[in-house]
Amino acid sequence: MDTVVLLSCTGLGLGALYFLVASGLSLIFGLMDVLNFAHGALLSVGAYATWWAGTEAGLSFWLAVPFGTLVGTAAAVLLELFLIRPLYSRPRDQILATVGVGLAVPALLMGVWGADARPFPQPALLSGTWHVLGATVPVNRFVLVAAAGLLLLALRLFLARTRYGLIVRAGVEDRAMVTALGIDVRRAFTLVFAIGGAAAALGGALGGLYFGSVNPGQGTGLLIFAFVVVVMGGMGSVTGAAVASVCVGLVQQFANYYTTAGLGDLSVVVLLAVLLLVRPRGLTGRLA
Predict the structure, then answer these.
(1) For residue 287, pLDDT beyond 50
(2) Which of 22, 114, 216, 227 has the most CB atoms around its CB within 10 Å?
């Protein structure tokens, strides 16, 4: 029983991490129709900025995480302004450009700080364990779940209740009409990209808690599963991405434990294939 509880809590923590990455990816694609292959690079930027602030700059963890998130957000804004925006009408070039950034950023991080993993600073408050139904579960798993839940609530409120959320949704449907009404859709799109980048950077900052370290290829590895989550949840559906993240995290953990190590990744691919055969548009196939 305690093993099942431990695997469930760990799977939920991993799923929460996947959602932190996939939510921004889903938001950007669903609202802007931009397939951002540089999303993993934004995660890596957030992770390394948090690590640098906590170790080199001497900031506490509670200040390092907001710092890393802000750095990742700024990187996302710069990416949208100077690379994505000029290519809105050229989707193929968009993909090539973001793939290039996704390859260049890990190489840059590797060149500056090396290829070895760097120990991630963890506060004493989050380095302990909780006893849940006989299982000893690391506290950071619950921190990830809480962060993912708050992010899901914030994104749904942004899309449904805020002026910019409504503007962006309308701009996706008929950008020319919204522009004719005197509304600057470009500013709203930049805001969406910033929110997506912030979510990825937060995933990188908190991902260090889960893995205990950061490395240049961490964002690329998580990006693969983030794409799986986005496709399973339905392209552009934040709620679908949340449900898919939980499924992927749990399947990975249980498959890796009860079968040969490494089969968890294969199980996720099989789950994706079966789901697409049954529901080609994913779990929801709609926005929000």
Answers:
(1) no
(2) 22
